[in-house]
What does this fold into?
Amino acid sequence: MYYKEDSIIYHNGAYIHPEKASGNMYSQALHYGNGVFEGIRAYKTKFGAKIFKAEAHYKRLKYGAEVMGIPFNYSIEELIDITYKLLEKNNLQDAYIRPLLTTGANMSLLTSEESLLTIQCWEWGKYMGDKLLKVKTSRFQRPNPKSCFVEAKVTGHYTNSILSTNEAKNAGYDEALLLDMNGNVAECSGANIFMQKDGKLYTPKRGHIMAGITRSTILEICKEESFSVEEKHFTLDELKQADSAFFTGTAAEVVGLESLDDYVFPLSWESSLGYKLMKLYKQEVLCERSTKLSEAI
It folds into this structure.
């Protein structure tokens, strides 16, 4: 599903078919999970294909490389240019984009002095679909911020997401919700969470969560639209008294929650602020909320 006969990826400085790509069997990324990646979307707009917040995504990739000590040999501008060329070579406008920076051969626990960049793109609908989600509170916690850099998209960190997703799916749920080490709500396996209570939105503070770019976009839209929103810690019990809730993420975009464990959110999705934000976010990524092209890049 990720590539076809005529698909092209960017790999180690060249545009090639995915099956021609090769990796090092002694890479730290393979053995220890020391790699970083991004999830980005491009959209077909009235201005043509536009990568949404490409600069912010590639800056986060660079940040991840820096904190993990991985060599980063590209400028942000180069990466954006490469990605637009890749979309063109694949004849794609609506696409999911996956840059991946892997490490070279090194069986020690000191970061390799070599790195390899791969960028892939493919057509991919909303990761969690469009229906309201039935969510299970996971027995797995989000990593302690003192154990790693939680705001870096490090490949090895996502074993935590796989564990929680498997647990939820095997129990008949759509998604997992994870708490932090203090028992506060953190996020789901691959997206941030907002809740609505008495006409106001709340979302967990940064520091123990992935600082999602979609999350920050939603906060910006709330400010522009005068929606009341607060970043704060809140408990599972508080979430189970909310009127409505939704997840945000590049792959998922904005998706509403039907229930959490045995709690059903009482406010209809169509009456919620999350539903309005889902519509506004779609307008934002399609360059329909502003005539300024620069604001969509």
